[in-house]
Amino acid sequence: MNDKKLPGGFSRRDFLRASGVVAGGAMLAGLPGVPALAGEKVIRIGYVSPQTGPLAPFAAADRFILDGVTQLLKNRIDIAGKAYRLEVLVRDSQSNPNRAAEVASELILSDGVDLMLVSSTPETTNPVSDQCEINEVPCISTVAPWQPWFFTRGGKPDQGFEWTYHFFWGLEDVIGAYTAMWEGLPGDKVVGGLFPNDGDGNAWGDSKLGFPPVLAQKGFQLVDPGRFQSLTDDFSAQIAAFRKGEAEIVTGVVIPPDLATFWTQARQQGFRPKVVSVGKALLFPSAVQALGPAGQNLSTEIWWSPQHPFSSSLDGRTSAQLATAYTQATGKQWTQPLGFVHALFELAVDILRRTAQVGDPHAVREALLATELNTVVGPVSWKHGPVKNVAKTPLVAGQWRQGGAFGYDLVITANRTAPNIPLGGEMQPITYGG
Predict the structure, then answer these.
(1) Taking the domain 172-302+403-414, which CATH number applies?
(2) pTM of the model
(3) What is the CATH number of domain 7-169+307-392?
(4) Fewer CB in 10 Å around end: N or C, the chain?
(5) What is the rounded distance in angstroms from the CA atom of residue 86 to the CA atom of residue 79?
(6) 3-state secondary structure 83-113
(7) 17: closest CA among 118, 136, 119?
(8) What is the pLDDT of residues 216-273, one digit of tens each?
């Protein structure tokens, strides 16, 4: 939207806040600290993620990252040679798009955040980004392929958005990473698609922008039984379609409960594909561990891992060191969003430190647009993206293999899309007993 000032130099956001047109709700500071001094300018960062509900695994590392930011910055940030009080206000979307929009509105209109951060799936990133675009607040989002973030919100490549910016990979990258894995195995090129009726599923299954046209170009045949509602308890129709089409590969983007239901029913009904490459559900160690031995050699995209050759701009830790620190602090296996949530705060701190005018959203946006930062997930810049407002990060793919301290390790088996990220093994077909 256009940057419009009301009489007296007030922005639309200033007017709404001053006139009391704000959403209710108590301030839940994500980071503890002492109260600000009278008259002291407080810099506020809003952060929204799905901490509860079906998407909660995406936010499993949030507290570790937030605690680390607290320890490192001590609730202060230096801008233009002056120290300011820093608050990070954390909100839970509850895995609900409506709730995500609601808490974003509260952060903007009631809490007056200077910069919004949001992570994890279009159901979270899109409603939060929309609130920021409407209210002229700089926003950085991640952990959603850029197409469902950009096009689903009505983005036009020649125009883009004014206040909302995204960094992640795109469907072109996940298709490239998946097909690089599949081409490493012999067999028919028939692929069964599991695409739910949500932002990711509709984007991945889109006949123009998603998997179908690219798979056809690469010589694969797609069996697409149509969209389904998440949290379904019966995948018999999809399994029957895949068996009829003689699919040897299954792909899609589903939540962990749906993957568990599908895979259990597929094995019960005698459907035995050589490859299952699924986004979202297979990202998390907990989801694979819950499958027991049936999780062996299931595959997924890998956006970040301890093997990624990048380091944090905040504390200098390598990807491997960050993953080790997380395991030592929590007793849990590293998870892919760990790197990207860390990178969100790397970007926030870098941008705010370079802001020319404290409290001016236009100045924050200008600093954002000038970003050239090497983060723990790779270099981030919005100067050379596929469309305005998008910065791309590298993507590879791999398989879950039994072994290690947690039962399964994620092994990189295809790096054609990002050769600087090292391979950890070769692609293997799924095997079945009996």
Answers:
(1) 3.40.50.2300
(2) 0.86
(3) 3.40.50.2300
(4) C
(5) 11
(6) EEEEEEEEEECCCCHHHHHHHHHHHHHCCCC
(7) 136
(8) 999 999 999 999 999 999 999 999 999 999 999 999 999 888 999 999 999 999 999 9
